[in-house]
Amino acid sequence: MGRRVSAKIKRSAKAVAIVGILGVIAMIAARPFVTLVEDPAPLDPLPPAYADYESEHVTASEPTAADSDIDDRLKRPVERVVTAGSGDTIKDLMLRAGVDSGDAALALDSLGTIYDPRTLRAGQKITVTFARPPEGFGQGDFLTVSLNADPMREVAARRTTGRGFEAVEAKRQVTREVAHFSGTIKASLFESAQNAGVPPQVIVTMIHALSYDVDFQRDIQSGDSFDVMFEGYYDAKGKLVRNGNLLYAAVNLSGKPIAMYRYENSQGVVEYFNDKGESVKKALLRTPVDGARITSGFGMRTHPILGYTKMHKGVDFGVPTGTPIMAAGDGTVEMAGFNGSYGNYVRIRHGNGYATAYAHMSRIAQGIRTGRHVAQGQVIGFVGATGRATGPHLHYEVLIGMTQINPMSVKVPTGTKLAGRELDRFRVAKARLDTLLAKIPPSGTRLAENLVKTGPLTN
Ligand SMILES: [Zn+2]
User: Fold this and answer.
1) What is the distance in A from the centroid of ligand 1 to the CA of 306?
2) Cα(131) to centroid of ligand 1, in Å?
3) Among 22, 226, 302, 341, which has the highest number of CB atoms less than 10 A from its own CB?
4) The model's pTM
């Protein structure tokens, strides 16, 4: 008996080992940039100015095969990089790099035709080049000034054969790629997605879009999972230069899946929709604070974060003092002020008989007064512990008339439902995203746009 059991254990250990090895192979095969990004296409075709600039730049600075190292160094332009301090203008930086003020003014006139010099920020770098003097000492003529206007665009003023300057612009070779990540939620969605490598900006968009459906305090349980797909713009070295759009986000909460797809309608309006083409927007937010700030949806807590019971006629969100509180829906402020054990308190009337109330605020936001109209998502106050509160939290109530009801039981009107041609368009967009989801392994893999476009739906 004992022997048979141990043989069984050995067999299953072997199976585990094989699965493990296969897993590692799968992971290696799924590594980004190994096979997927063989031919990254630039976002825009190279403008001619860029090609000229590059080739001339290269000829000017690179030795011919016959040149010795020393000759090469003598021919290469002298390059100076200067970093802007606060309040610096480009002219200040150019003068600091050694450009005379007449040349600087001429170069700036020309640069100004393609770049607004007032957009220069502290910390930005400008590069100035000078020709080598024939003697090999000091510096020769000022040749170019260049800087990154934004992550995607480099601008420069370059001396022409005469005494003038011309503006040249270089679009960086940037590839739009789609990344797919999934994982298990541990302490919080924000933390787990961030640990998986999802950029914070993408997570915040995801949390905002989920806040209509998800109570980030109570709905997230240990072992729940997330799945997210988004765009990013990468340079030739694989460095992220700009975040793109969140394309798809889903969570699986105790077996209940919630998924949303980005869709731009024929009018150019972007919203997130479920698989049936219903907008995720609802009349009321289920999480009326920044869900990214709720760091412990479950497990040990220093103070109880209550849900709705007979004794406790609201739900509490445990977030740090000062966290912005948002109006759960559009409405009119019915009361804003100190209200006994509720502390600083705001109540909003939404129509259909519904109202929402927010208590224990450290302070009420400016301009939130009785009779004022507020929009969904507008900040109405900040989390605190005023009134009878054991620690900082938002006490949130939903009322019908003046009676508190369980927010979970509220059947709030939903947002837009797509129909007709718009629904057909959505289905095409959704199918394309579904294809991508199936195609890109959810292990943080990225797929370049040109490969994305070869999906069966676009051919
Ligand atoms: Zn409470």
Assistant:
1) 6
2) 71
3) 226
4) 0.66
Domain count, the chain: 3
| Separation CA 321–CA 136 (nearest Å) | 63
How many whole angstroms from its chain centre is CA 189? Answer: 15
pLDDT of residue 327: 97
Instruction: Report CA(319)–ligand 1 centroid distance (Å).
Output: 13
Please indicate, yes or no, whether residues 67 and 156 belong to a single structural domain of this protein: yes
Tell me the CA–centroid distance for residue 396 and ligand 1, in Å.
Answer: 7
- 314-371 pLDDT per residue, tens: 999 999 999 999 999 999 999 999 999 999 999 999 988 899 999 999 999 999 999 9
d(CA 206, CA 243): 14
Q: How far is the CA of 289 from the centre of ligand 1 (A)?
A: 14
228 and 185 in one domain? yes
| CATH code of the domain containing 404 | 2.70.70.10
Same domain, 85 and 155: yes
Question: From the CA of 158, how far away is ligand 1's center (Å)?
Answer: 65
Same domain as 148, residue 52: yes
Q: Provide the CA 439 distance to its chain's centre, in angstroms.
A: 22
Give 120 Cα–ligand 1 centroid separation in angstroms. Answer: 48
Helices and strands, number each (H, E), in the chain: 9, 21
Give the per-residue pLDDT at 237: 82
- Same domain as 421, residue 404: no
Is 149's pLDDT higher than 60? Answer: yes
- Which residues are paired to 317 by β-bridges? 394
Closest CA to 76 of 84, 67, 85, 89: 67
| 179 located within any domain | yes
Condensed to tens digits (0 to 9), the pLDDT of residues 366-406 reads 999 999 999 999 999 999 999 999 889 999 999 999 999 99
Beta bridge partners of 125: 83
Give the distance (Å) from ligand 1 centre to CA of residue 334. Answer: 20
Q: What is d(CA 211, CA 29) in angstroms, rounded to the nearest whole number? A: 36
| Spacing, Cα 347 to ligand 1 middle (Å) | 15
C-alpha of residue 256 to centroid of ligand 1, in Å? 26
**In angstroms, what is the span from residue 321 Cα to ligand 1's centroid?**
15
Helix (H, G, I), strand (E, B) or coil at 282: strand
Query: Residue 98 Cα, ligand 1 centroid: separation in angstroms?
Result: 65
**Using CB atoms within 10 A of its CB, is residue 118 exposed (0-12), middle (13-18) or buried (19+)?**
exposed
CA 305 to centroid of ligand 1, rounded, Å: 8
- Expressed in angstroms and rounded, the spacing between residue 88 Cα and the centre of ligand 1 is 51
Q: Is 316 exposed, middle or buried (0-12, 13-18, 19+ CB in 10 A)?
A: buried
pLDDT of residue 33: 29
Please give the distance, rounded to the nearest whole angstrom, from the Cα atom of residue 225 to the centre of ligand 1.
28
